[in-house]
Amino acid sequence: MNKSILNINTGSQNSSISGLLKLIAETDGDIIKSIEPVIGFLHRGLEKSAETKTFLQYLPLAEKIDCTSGFLCQEAFCSAVEMLCEIDVPKRAKYIRVLLMELNRIASHLLWFGSYLLDLGSFSPSFFLLNERKLILKIFENLTDEKILYNFHKFGGVKQDLNKKSLCDIEDFLKILSSKLEKYKNILNNPIFLAKTKNIGILSKNTALNYSITGANLRASDVPLDFRKTQPYLIYNQVDFDIPTQKQGDCYSRFLQRLAEIKESQKIILQCIEYLKLTKGEINNPNINIDTVIPKKDKTVISYIESSRGLTSCMIISDGSSKPYRIKWRTGSFYSVQLLPVLLKHRYLTDITAVLGSLDIFLPEVDR
């Protein structure tokens, strides 16, 4: 072995978003020759535990797959159970779900922005962004009495309607956010941030597709794949929004991509608010007793949703009993971790933070 080669262990530092990922880097000076991600430090058995619980008992646990996108993960599980048991969801409930999911997506992206900027040394903008996220959490708390895990979905609907005050609070927040997004982009248009992100960690279109990458990381590499468009669910085929993409596929492109996606989420939310203000209707299927949800037959179903970090799917294998025979989750972060050896090879050690952070990896989602 060459005497200049040195193995360096990076992580695991803490229990936060990407802190439980260990990277073993083989270096030659400050150049990375190879890097090996080590996962599994936060394994919670959320798939295996489903086999001992009824569908209703497992519903609150679905949010813990990704607690920064709780509404989105609950939708993935709820829609799978609703397909399994042939449960219809009222149109108003679908609009409420989409509104809260898109608001949750914005909150997740803002958390990523704040954390990423903090990692790169931009302290002041990070606090501003996290403050905007705090406004969303306050809206969720007023609606559900919870800050992080909401358990708001029900099989066949939602637990509560959105009143005019809640809708006005959301509109007021969107006005505040719109006025600040361009300001944040201009603040970060500085030589230090650009030097740390531009032309760093370039993910080509072919590599992204070969590694089954989805979500913002894929679209930042100029692949316009969004499951809200290609496999529309709920009411996504009834609202108008675009699929923004970036050309370069570097860390800066992934930053711009999530900024653009926040704007698209705002468009969707405003359309949902308009519908909810003008119409009335049921928010739950009156023919369903959620306490006794039992599939009618042996069946396997798979749900697909576009979550904050890409495709999230939930597969349920049922044997016809009140408990799932098997549950399997597919999450975006697990695939993004596999990119690190590709994106960091022959890069500097100092690039690890910028590349890892740009992928928006959430380790609890990886380990499950």
The CATH homologous superfamily is named Cytochrome-c3 Hydrogenase, chain B
The low-confidence parts are: 14-18
Tell how many strands the DSSP assignment holds: 8
Termini Cα gap: 37 Å
Structural account:
The chain is of the alpha+beta class. The chain has a single domain, classed as Cytochrome-c3 Hydrogenase, chain B (Orthogonal Bundle). Helices cover 47% and strands 13% of the residues. It contains 14 helices and 8 strands. It has helices at 55-62, 70-85, 91-119, 123-144, 164-187, 191-197, 205-210, 216-219, 227-230, 251-278, 332-337, 340-344, 351-358, 363-367; strands at residues 5-10, 22-28, 31-38, 153-154, 157-158, 299-307, 310-318, 326-330. The strands form 3 sheets. Strands 1-2-3 form a 3-stranded antiparallel β-sheet. The protein has a 3-stranded antiparallel β-sheet with strand order 6-7-8. Strands 4-5 form a two-stranded antiparallel ribbon. A hairpin with a 7-residue loop joins strand 7 and strand 8. The longest helix has 29 residues, at 91-119. Mean pLDDT is 87; it is low at 14-18.
Topology:
Layout: E1 5-10, E2 22-28, E3 31-38, H1 55-62, H2 70-85, H3 91-119, H4 123-144, E4 153-154, E5 157-158, H5 164-187, H6 191-197, H7 205-210, H8 216-219, H9 227-230, H10 251-278, E6 299-307, E7 310-318, E8 326-330, H11 332-337, H12 340-344, H13 351-358, H14 363-367
Antiparallel strand pairs: 1-2, 2-3, 4-5, 6-7, 7-8
Helix pairs in contact: 1-2, 2-3, 3-4, 3-10, 3-13, 4-5, 5-10
